């Protein structure tokens, strides 16, 4: 953009439109760059579930089984570290309403999960993972759907709906099989839409 | 150019700044500099103009050893931007009708 001091004499309405379009493109590009967070969280949540499922059906050597035990806690922690790094470094120059809204959605999800656990414990007086897991999936489906609505990005909205449906089917299965649906859900709802969004960033 | 267009907004850099600020909560000076691709001096001058018109708020602070300038759009700024967009849209509507 050429430096302009103040005068509007040489600035016509077509140029106005061009400037507005340019700035809209800039905002869109920023949102598309954020697709990297969908990819990171999609895989960080999906892989531990898929590993939990496959390590039960595949006969793996003890050494690999030992290493796989660490994937569950390490991957989400790595994703969290990356998110904090990304927010502090990439987004430090600007605070968006979208970013602030999404933060509230996912922090609230964590709060809802804790409350659900406490309520389940009060009602059933036991830790029933087979019941807890699909309920957590429903809460996650809602958070994914709201994320898609905030981003105005249909693949994530659709992903949220699919995740909700998978939660229902998960409730019909034993815990071990629920992990497979959970892993597929995260891939469909976040990782794949994230790749599509990120791929479009320079277009 | 039309008579009705807000002279504060009808400038390349100021319009770009307002377009950016409309979609964000706050933006730092360096972000606006990247977005508008203008010079520091020019951006500073244009921000002051918008601030004088009360279309934006400017907060100045210090982060580490460096000055930090953060801007956000005001309600008055949002309304002025809406009026500006409506005027431009009206212009294009009339122009289109004339061509047809």
TL;DR?
The complex is a heterodimer of chains A (203) and B (100). Chain A has seven helices and one strand, in the order αααβαααα. Chain A is mostly helical and 203 residues long.
- Mind telling me the C-alpha Rg of chain A? 21 Å
Give the helix proportion of chain B (percent range).
55-70%
CATH architecture of chain B: Orthogonal Bundle
Instruction: Show the largest interface.
Output: A-B, 29 and 35 residues
Order of helices and strands of chain A: HHHEHHHH
Q: What's the main sheet of chain A like?
A: none
Radius of gyration of chain B: 15 Å
CATH topology of chain B: Arc Repressor Mutant, subunit A
Could you spell the SSE succession of chain B in H and E letters?
HEHHEEH
Which helices and strands, and how do they pair?
The complex is a heterodimer of chains A (203) and B (100).
Chain A: H1 13-33, H2 35-57, H3 62-89, E1 94-96, H4 97-124, H5 129-151, H6 154-170, H7 175-199
Chain B: H1 12-22, E1 24-28, H2 29-36, H3 40-52, E2 56-63, E3 66-73, H4 75-99
Antiparallel strand pairs in B: 1-3, 2-3
